[in-house]
Write a structure and sequence with these properties.
The complex is a heterodimer of chains A (128) and B (125).
Chain A (H helix, E strand, L loop, with lengths): L21 H32 L1 H11 L2 H27 L7 H26 L1
Helix pairs in contact in A: 1-2, 1-3, 3-4
Chain B lengths: L5 H6 L7 H29 L4 H9 L1 H29 L5 H27 L3
Classes of the chains: A mainly alpha (128), B mainly alpha (125).
Chain lengths: 128, 125
């Protein structure tokens, strides 16, 4: 693409030269959490299909999902789900044309991270 | 400063005209998931590692079954929209269209499978 005339447009600066802001971390981790949730969703559907098949197949799949590796994946998915949940709430708030002040945006990002940790712990307390 | 490329000047077609629809559907599914996600986490989470009969009984309950079906349908549609944007951002050239197709097939197939599974349990295996 380098030899193509892309018009007389300014180039976006490289990621490496930006000043660090928590909104950057909140933004990319929100995307990573969303993509990662595809794995949890795949496991959940497999588990539901097993439950819809019969007790023996369900026992096999349920055993895998609740094995040590399965537990790690499901715990990660739970955390990713809450992370994406609060990251998304932040975007829904921004959609109302509020919270764009730098200080507020930074605080919203921090609060969404804290919310994810707190709700993961509360969920575990209720589920377990 | 002219922001248009040569190709853009030649084609002159503007946008694909479906950006707002994509954005809007993302927002509508987001609002739905604000309510569905907690409801689903607490039913599904408690059933992980439970007996088969207990799982069947739980999804025999209309409320649990409808919440699960809505959660699967809405979240896989939301996932499809989200992964589409990620692919459009990071995948270029000839790999892009197959990736977008694979994403659409993956999300609709899993969504259909999940809804089928819950419906089958709810209606009695």
């Amino acid at each position: 693409m380098a030899d193509v005339n892309r018009g007389n447009r300014p180039l976006s600066p490289h990621l490496g030269i930006y000043h660090y802001y928590i909104t950057m971390i909140a933004s990319i981790t929100n995307r990573i959490a969303g993509v990662g949730l595809a794995v949890g969703a795949l496991l959940a559907v497999w588990w539901l299909l097993a439950a819809a098949t019969d007790a023996a197949y369900f026992a096999t799949v349920d055993g895998l999902v609740t094995s040590i590796i399965g537990d790690i994946v499901m715990l990660g998915s739970l955390f990713a789900l809450w992370w994406h949940f609060f990251g998304g709430l932040r975007h829904l708030y921004w959609d109302t044309n509020r919270g764009f002040n730098l200080d507020v945006a930074n605080k919203l990002s921090l609060y969404s991270m804290i919310g994810a940790v707190v709700m993961t712990i509360i969920s575990l307390l209720i589920i377990l | 400063m002219d922001y248009r490329t040569n190709r853009k000047r030649a084609a002159g077609l503007g946008s694909a005209k479906d950006g707002v629809e994509h954005y809007w559907q993302m927002k509508v599914t987001s609002y739905a998931l604000v309510f569905l996600t907690p409801l689903f986490i607490f039913t599904f989470g408690r059933l992980l590692g439970a007996e088969h009969a207990q799982v069947v009984a739980a999804f025999g309950n209309p409320f649990n079954a409808v919440v699960a079906i809505l959660m699967i349908g809405v979240s896989f549609y939301h996932l499809k929209l989200g992964l589409q944007v990620v692919i459009e951002d990071y995948v270029h050239g000839s790999a892009r269209m197959p990736s977008l197709l694979a994403n659409t097939f993956f999300c609709y197939a899993l969504g259909a499978a999940g809804i089928f599974a819950v419906a089958k349990i709810a209606f009695g295996v």
